[in-house]
Design goal:
136 residues, 7 strands, alpha+beta
Length: 136
């Protein structure tokens, strides 16, 4: 179980706010289709996940500094947002635009980076393999 940061960074209601990555958490940005694949494999082992339907992206929150050495398959489009980045964070009641696919709670905010890395590596291999398959 990952240490959960206090939820002081969470906006209220239906608002959104820019929050600096690298302070309470880092974020892992993933294309939505690949992220949904990984989310299915993570099941109950996931922490909070932001969905940005406009950008077609999912964001996982992980402990700061825990993913800088990740190696992903070429073309995976996985980006780690750390201390030089900001993330749009939705309030808990927001249901359109950027919103919580899996909302944070005091006991479950961060995803274990090793577990997430494994799930994303498998999902990326499938996604990249699908894109490179010859078209009939």
């Amino acid at each position: 179980m990952q240490k959960t940061p206090p939820l002081e960074w969470l906006p209220t209601g239906r608002t959104v706010s820019m929050r600096p990555a690298g302070r309470w958490w880092d974020a892992v940005q993933v294309p939505r289709s690949m992220g949904l694949d990984a989310l299915g494999h993570l099941a109950g082992a996931t922490g909070a996940v932001i969905e940005d339907p406009g950008g077609g992206l999912l964001y996982w929150l992980i402990p700061t500094g825990s993913a800088y050495t990740w190696q992903m398959p070429p073309g995976a489009q996985v980006t780690v947002l750390g201390e030089t980045n900001h993330l749009i964070v939705p309030g808990p009641q927001r249901t359109s635009g950027p919103h919580w696919r899996i909302p944070p709670t005091r006991g479950n905010t961060l995803t274990d980076p090793s577990t997430l890395h494994d799930a994303l590596t498998e999902a990326a291999a499938r996604a990249v393999g699908q894109r490179s398959a010859p078209q009939p």
